[in-house]
Amino acid sequence: MTSNVQLSETISPSHQKSHPTAEKEEVDYMQRAQWLRAALLGANDGLVTVASLMMGVGSLKEDVKAMLLVGFAGLVAGACSMAIGEFVSVCTQRDIETAQMKRAIENKISLSAVDEQEEEEKKERLPNPGQAAVASALAFSVGAAMPLLAAVFIENHKVRMMVVAVVATIALLVFGVTGAVLGKTSVVKSTVRVVIGGWIAMAVTFGLTKFIGSEAMEM
């Protein structure tokens, strides 16, 4: 009897140690990806949009006020657009999930206590359109504020343009690494994709604005 007790006491700690590890491995990365995608998308969109607008205007005008004005306008317009778009999208998703839950309940003759509890838990997990709209607007504003703050105190036009591009690149690197680490995906692939995408957006905006602006001035 004593040996059996000692054996159980010896084995039980190892079993207790295994539980935390198992719990850590059961992280729902799909659920995490939903809010992560929304936050990073909003911040990345704000950064790239405003930085591209500032680069485009800077290709024609050296006045810092013009760059800051168009950047601020892009921040406000983009934040409002993101908030409205996210609100409508989440409302649609919520309506679809609610309708699906109602159909599931109607197809059941009677609900047990367990089923009712599951339905209540599903209702509590339904997405909140208001929260999603505010979160998207804030994320966009945070990303958009970075190039604005980088350019506000720099008088020299060329230095200002370079600083905006460098700050945007650093922020894109941070967004790429953060998304990869939290989502447990490839850091290199995620970072390269985000940075190159931002560079392309800024380069295209800069080039097309300069070309169209130059052609319009000659007319």
TrEMBL record:
<feature type="transmembrane region" description="Helical">
    <location>
        <begin position="161"/>
        <end position="182"/>
    </location>
</feature>
<protein>
    <recommendedName>
        <fullName>Vacuolar iron transporter</fullName>
    </recommendedName>
</protein>
<keyword id="KW-0406">Ion transport</keyword>
<dbReference type="GO" id="GO:0140315">
    <property type="term" value="F:iron ion sequestering activity"/>
</dbReference>
<dbReference type="InterPro" id="IPR008217">
    <property type="entry name" value="Ccc1_fam"/>
</dbReference>
<keyword id="KW-1133">Transmembrane helix</keyword>
<feature type="transmembrane region" description="Helical">
    <location>
        <begin position="35"/>
        <end position="54"/>
    </location>
</feature>
<comment type="similarity">
    <text>Belongs to the CCC1 family.</text>
</comment>
<dbReference type="Pfam" id="PF01988">
    <property type="entry name" value="VIT1"/>
</dbReference>
<keyword id="KW-0926">Vacuole</keyword>
<keyword id="KW-0410">Iron transport</keyword>
<feature type="region of interest" description="Disordered">
    <location>
        <begin position="1"/>
        <end position="25"/>
    </location>
</feature>
<dbReference type="GO" id="GO:0005381">
    <property type="term" value="F:iron ion transmembrane transporter activity"/>
</dbReference>
<keyword id="KW-0812">Transmembrane</keyword>
<keyword id="KW-0472">Membrane</keyword>
<dbReference type="GO" id="GO:0005774">
    <property type="term" value="C:vacuolar membrane"/>
</dbReference>
<feature type="transmembrane region" description="Helical">
    <location>
        <begin position="132"/>
        <end position="154"/>
    </location>
</feature>
<feature type="transmembrane region" description="Helical">
    <location>
        <begin position="66"/>
        <end position="84"/>
    </location>
</feature>
<keyword id="KW-0408">Iron</keyword>
<feature type="compositionally biased region" description="Polar residues">
    <location>
        <begin position="1"/>
        <end position="15"/>
    </location>
</feature>
<comment type="function">
    <text>Vacuolar Fe(2+) uptake transporter.</text>
</comment>
<feature type="transmembrane region" description="Helical">
    <location>
        <begin position="194"/>
        <end position="213"/>
    </location>
</feature>
<keyword id="KW-0813">Transport</keyword>
